[in-house]
């Protein structure tokens, strides 16, 4: 049962996103979403995910002391380890080293692990990584190195990497070129670092074709303007953003989910949301907005809007739905307005004429 528990835990980590998303961001071990041309043509790939269901037991006698090893899974978590253990089988695909006391990754710590697919180093004390520590990991796709003491993005990350979770460290700067060559990278979680807008050098994300990026719980005062234009999800919750200006979102026309909750946003300039034609979900809860943002009726695919816990005092009849014969391609299935000083009895029923169900609207519970 131990390997099954470990696999379940890894998948849970892979889905630890700020908002629920089923099926799209779940980079599971048998997922073919990011299949490259070689995989599609049947040619053996160096970066494909392993199919653990079809793995033949290796019966290798190599297993670090105190760890649990089965098939290609090596679990060495919660052992108080000071260093990466030796005697790890070369055919290992999943190595779990979370919740230990490892402070450094040395040059040969992962030597011979050319088949490793996922490496979990969460909640250690890592502050130093040798520039060639990850060199042997030519098939690594998942690197979870959150909750450590890193002050910079690790150098020379494997070109096969798809998902990087490096939140809750001490990173203040993202230099240009740090992600160079990572053409397969799809998801970066880097929240919980003391990053300011000035900490991102121009061109820091050059070459990346990310779908998902989270920089929550940082020190941002505005929306960064040099992030990958391929983004489908951008989460900037729990920062110090005060306004959304006209061209802040110009670059991000492919977004379908934008998280800006728990900031200090007082103003969203008219027309700024018009650059997001495919947006489906907008989180603006726990800010300082005094009115519903302009432009929501023009977002034909918008289905969920979180506006609770603001200072909104009035909701107009055309704040959410198109006027006249304007048609939304997707009706709302969630609008939250609770914890706002709105006199709800004055809101006209026609305000929500493009909502699927009355239960999709959340009102009330305002306290001064």
From TrEMBL:
GO terms for biological process, alphabetical: articular cartilage development; bone development
Protein's UniProt keywords contain Secreted: yes
Pfam families given in the database record: LRR_8, LRRNT
Cell compartments where the protein resides: Secreted, Extracellular space, Extracellular matrix
Keyword Secreted: yes
Leader peptide range in chain numbering: 1-16
Domain LRRNT: 62-94
PROSITE patterns: LRR (PS51450)
Disulfide feature: 63-69, 67-76, 321-354
Record keywords, A-Z: Disulfide bond, Extracellular matrix, Glycoprotein, Leucine-rich repeat, Proteoglycan, Repeat, Secreted, Signal
InterPro entries named in the record: Leu-rich_rpt, Leu-rich_rpt_typical-subtyp, LRR_dom_sf, LRRNT, SLRP, SLRP_I_decor/aspor/byglycan
GO cellular component, one term: sarcolemma
MF terms (GO), sorted A to Z: cytokine binding; extracellular matrix binding; glycosaminoglycan binding
Function: May be involved in collagen fiber assembly.
UniProt similarity note: Belongs to the small leucine-rich proteoglycan (SLRP) family. SLRP class I subfamily.
Protein name per Swiss-Prot or TrEMBL: Biglycan
């Amino acid at each position: 049962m131990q390997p099954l528990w470990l696999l379940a835990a890894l998948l849970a980590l892979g889905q630890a996103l700020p908002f629920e998303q089923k099926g799209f961001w779940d980079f599971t071990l048998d997922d073919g979403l990011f299949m490259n041309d070689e995989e599609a043509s049947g040619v053996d790939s160096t970066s494909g995910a392993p199919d653990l269901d079809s793995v033949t037991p290796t019966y290798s006698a190599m297993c670090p002391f105190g760890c649990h090893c089965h098939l290609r899974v090596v679990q060495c978590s919660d052992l108080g380890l000071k260093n990466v253990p030796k005697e790890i089988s070369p055919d290992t695909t999943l190595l779990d080293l979370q919740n230990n006391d490892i402070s450094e990754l040395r040059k040969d710590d992962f030597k011979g692990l050319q088949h490793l697919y996922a490496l979990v180093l969460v909640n250690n004390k890592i502050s130093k990584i040798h520039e060639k520590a990850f060199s042997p990991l030519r098939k690594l796709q998942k690197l979870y190195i959150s909750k450590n003491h890193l002050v910079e993005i690790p150098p020379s990350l494997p070109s096969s990497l798809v998902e990087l979770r490096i939140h809750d460290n001490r990173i203040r700067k993202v230099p240009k070129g740090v992600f160079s060559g990572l053409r397969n990278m799809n998801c970066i979680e880097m929240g919980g670092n003391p990053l300011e807008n000035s900490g991102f050098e121009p061109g820091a994300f050059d070459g990346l074709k990310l779908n998902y990026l989270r920089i929550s719980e940082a020190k941002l005062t505005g929306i960064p303007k040099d992030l990958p234009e391929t983004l489908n999800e951008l989460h900037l919750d729990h920062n110090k953003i005060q306004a959304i200006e006209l061209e802040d979102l110009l670059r991000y026309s492919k977004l379908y989910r934008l998280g800006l909750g728990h900031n200090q946003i007082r103003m969203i300039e008219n027309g700024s949301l018009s650059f997001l034609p495919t947006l489906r979900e907008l989180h603006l809860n726990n800010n300082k907005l005094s009115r519903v943002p302009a432009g929501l009726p023009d977002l034909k695919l918008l289905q969920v809007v979180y506006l609770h816990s603001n200072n909104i005092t009035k909701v107009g009849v055309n704040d959410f739905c198109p006027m006249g014969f304007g048609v939304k391609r997707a009706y709302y299935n969630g609008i939250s307005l609770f914890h706002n000083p709105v006199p709800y009895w004055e809101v006209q029923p026609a305000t929500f004429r493009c909502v699927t169900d009355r239960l999709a609207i959340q009102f009330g519970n305002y306290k001064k």
